[in-house]
Amino acid sequence: MTGTRKSRPPLTDESHPNGRVGKRQAILEAALRVFAREGYGQASVDTIASEAGVSKATIYNHLGDKETLFRHALAEIASRSNTKTMDALGAFPTHPEDLRAGLLGVAHKLAECFADDQSTALRRLLQSEIVRFPDLFETIRDSGPNQATEALAGQLARLANAGYLELADPLRAANQFVALIVDELPTLSALGTRKIDDADLTKAVAAGVDTFLRAFGNRATL
Amino acid sequence: MTGTRKSRPPLTDESHPNGRVGKRQAILEAALRVFAREGYGQASVDTIASEAGVSKATIYNHLGDKETLFRHALAEIASRSNTKTMDALGAFPTHPEDLRAGLLGVAHKLAECFADDQSTALRRLLQSEIVRFPDLFETIRDSGPNQATEALAGQLARLANAGYLELADPLRAANQFVALIVDELPTLSALGTRKIDDADLTKAVAAGVDTFLRAFGNRATL
Amino acid sequence: MTGTRKSRPPLTDESHPNGRVGKRQAILEAALRVFAREGYGQASVDTIASEAGVSKATIYNHLGDKETLFRHALAEIASRSNTKTMDALGAFPTHPEDLRAGLLGVAHKLAECFADDQSTALRRLLQSEIVRFPDLFETIRDSGPNQATEALAGQLARLANAGYLELADPLRAANQFVALIVDELPTLSALGTRKIDDADLTKAVAAGVDTFLRAFGNRATL
Amino acid sequence: MTGTRKSRPPLTDESHPNGRVGKRQAILEAALRVFAREGYGQASVDTIASEAGVSKATIYNHLGDKETLFRHALAEIASRSNTKTMDALGAFPTHPEDLRAGLLGVAHKLAECFADDQSTALRRLLQSEIVRFPDLFETIRDSGPNQATEALAGQLARLANAGYLELADPLRAANQFVALIVDELPTLSALGTRKIDDADLTKAVAAGVDTFLRAFGNRATL
DNA sequence: TATGAATGAGCATTCATTCAT
DNA sequence: CATGAATGAATGCTCATTCAT
Question: Do A124 and B123 touch (CB under 8 A)?
Fold first, then answer.
């Protein structure tokens, strides 16, 4: 029954390059793996300690109680997922010869980010524990997806300005772009329990891109 | 009946029912609430028993162990959600004077189904426990969403046949219809922790429907 | 998991075919089996009820609580074991042509009684629960073994009177006769968990009889 | 019961040792007592923990689950009993002036070993739980009684070689020696629930020794 | 600082027993 | 009478957390 009662200190403050950072990292890494694999409730601090190769007490010394550990681990996954996603967005075509092909490229990369194990685990953990830790939603949303969505919106807006797309609301379009691209992925991966066949992924992504282009492609240039 | 005897009237007490079926129902109801609130791992049979107004042993007598109880509870939510969704689909316009208004009507109802507490809980539980109970995905998927999606696909196909829409693949279009309609809901509800303001819901749904129509509306009739 | 089999074949030797005594007998029979198989502590009234084909409450109606049921079952096994043993003693040679052969015959039968499943179970249950139910020792001892030992003592005394044996204390001799005969049986049967090979039984019994005869045989006649 | 009370036991409590080895020993000691008193099935880990003055979890940390605890406790009793018995055998007369007196001395000590509380408990537990843990028979048998019997057989053989006894099979004779000596003890102690009066013990042992000597004493020297 | 040891609270599950029908 | 249903009280076992070393 631990909720969000006390105001909590900022998570990313540890500036002790003492050499024990390695231990801290090992703990986070293990926590990440174990929470992703077993969920918050079922993950035991024992397991995390054992996978990190440290004693349980060390975890408490470094990262406080289970809830705090969970928050740190989530923040870490979120950060990684975000990095991956922003990288994927780097492939966005600014002046594409072939708009569809360009969008397909980015979309495929974004879909891969979405289907990534860590990203899937993050979404699962977030949704599982949102009732227990309601503040997590905003925290994570701001730190990752929102940035990505806004970046994507910016790129779509540039395409629109360049005459490739017809968009009234780039942010909303960005959301819909992702929604369409990603639509079939949960089914294809059985909620993240199966690896998606690449051909299937490509087809699903294409379906999303095509619908997006039907909706927002500049009819004059199509 | 003058009531000289101690004969007990068949109480249909809703809060703590005494009847056999009533008790089973009360257990399921409580399980549903508790699992939805706390997740499988964190939910305790004690809590469920206490909320159901029965003893723990009674739960085991009626519904077997915790896993079985969970499966029954999920099946129950799934069934209810499905019923609601199929009802919502009943409002689908077959020969609409105003296509957009018609679609908005259905879309709004579907979005309400999606945002419904029980439906949200179902999705959360399913995603949370998919690793522990991988078979749940197919079971639930078949029993509910798939039926709804196919029904929706059929209705979209009829609209296409009637010349209102241009669809190559109705099933995929149905999926995308839902995806677009529902796109912003998790954000608006903070993953199901906040009630969505109806105006916001209406706006979000409209955005989805509009994009859908831009993609699949018959341009001749628009 | 309950209600495996409801219809037990009606015992043909039952004088009350309407089921009252038959039910009581079925309960005792089942209790006997289950207690023997699982011990007092581990045996569950549920199991006994299910094997008896009656409901748990019926057991309580007929035979009181678990302890009483246990006592009745023990008494029943003791009675049967005693009957078997007394039958075996009926083979005792009163005027044997070949004393050794005669004693071997009885000894073999007695050893079989000792090694019998029910007899083994009786000893096991008695010893297991003697701390909990200290009065059982005397009750059972009087109802069975003591009678047998005294009968055996009487027969040994007759042999002594007839000049075949030299005994100062027939009762003690009877005890020692049994002790010698039975000495190796627990080892051979691994405390009752293995069936004893008949050749081994014969050898072990012979060893006991021979030592007995070396001690008590009339040297003049040997 | 609100909050987490930190009721700290007095640190210098002597009856509940705090040392690491001490704790393990205290657990084993308590387990031994409780298992002996209540049997495996009825003994609760709670009781053992409470009698050992430790928490339940500590038991699980030190000795694994209940079965393992039981096995360790049994091994401990077996080891102690064996030590006692081997000590008793040290008193065996190799060149006795008075054979009967010498044998009586050993026999009395052996009988005391047999009647010892722990030894009695060991036999009871072994027989009670042999169905659940069939491997225990051989394990215990090898670790204790077999060694003792063989030692005894060796000593009897030496007496035979020295002309004091006439033995064809020393091992069998050793078994029978014990069987005769011990024959009346279960009855005298009411299956281990009463302390045996020493005079009775002496008489019972003498009866066994006398019969043994009648059977195996060298008639020339008697 | 890192850790091994310890523990109170809690968990899923079972059981002997009762009672209304 | 016989029974299905119900339950309070255990039971074996685990876990997040603490603390002396």
Answer: no
